[in-house]
Amino acid sequence: MKADAVRGHLDGLLLAVLEEGPLHGYAIITAVQRRSGGALDLRTGTIYPALNRLERQGLLASDWESTGERRRRSYRLTDSGRAGLAERRADWRAFTSAIGAVLDPAPGSAT
Amino acid sequence: MSGDDGAGDAVVAYRDRFARLLRGPARARARLVEEVADGFADTVRAWRAAGFDEAGAARRAEAEFGTPEEVAASCQRELTLAQVRHTAGVVASTAPLPLACWYLLGQAETARDGWLPQSAQALAAGLAGVAGVAALGALLALAVTGRASRWLSVPRRLPDAVGWLGTAASGAMAGSALALTVAAALATHWPLVALAGVASAACHAGVAPSARACRRQPRVADPA
Q1: Stated pTM of the model
Q2: For a surface tag, which of B72, B86, B164, B216 has the fewest beta carbons within 10 Å of its beta carbon?
């Protein structure tokens, strides 16, 4: 799936993989790839500005975490982020339901 | 980053190329550079673990992660907005200070029946107006680029607008510092007036470089 198709859904994808708990940038990338079965063709470096934007908008919060000698920024959902994720899920379900009804109508309903 | 950790010089080269392409406040820029370099290093390590040599792993990592130019292009918007917010924050927090100084000095002089000269009062009113407008504009910019940006689109020329607002505030502070220095010679509370002049000069010194940096930022691009 090309990057253009993913655009517009990236925020929802990032919020969704953080639902289960805090992750650092690379772990977020691998979680998105794992969940999508590698089908999303993302320039993975571009998720960092998206994470910064979501933090600026109050949907994510972040802290530096040290693991050994490495220091990594770990992101977590805020309450607004959880609400934002629920909203995006509802929008996505409504969207796929509407498009699916047109592209793949139930037998007898295609009039 | 040493070559022992499976990432090596390729990461240092990537980080340096990336850092050179970014413009923005030092702290926000350093944070992004560190995060992106760390993510690239992880990507190189993953390809190394898959059996590629360092050069091969670095090539594949760059293809997957994005070139420094691609990643910097998507990061610059956030850095531009960080600069806007930094400048707006400095203006919003310092612009009211000269206003407060003039007000308190006026009160102190009135109490002693030695009110500042008419010309100083007129100047104070003008500078207060500029500072007040700048502070309100800065607060508005902070609101538009914060949580509200979920629903509002950020104007493309906001960096210019905030940069010029900061320049106006900085000019008002410089004028205020000069006027207070002159007024100190005439005022009853001259040490207090001189102190207020120094405070205005300090505010000017804080705002001017940030406003200049903001004016030099590119226009705000659409989010990636």
Answers
A1: 0.83
A2: B216
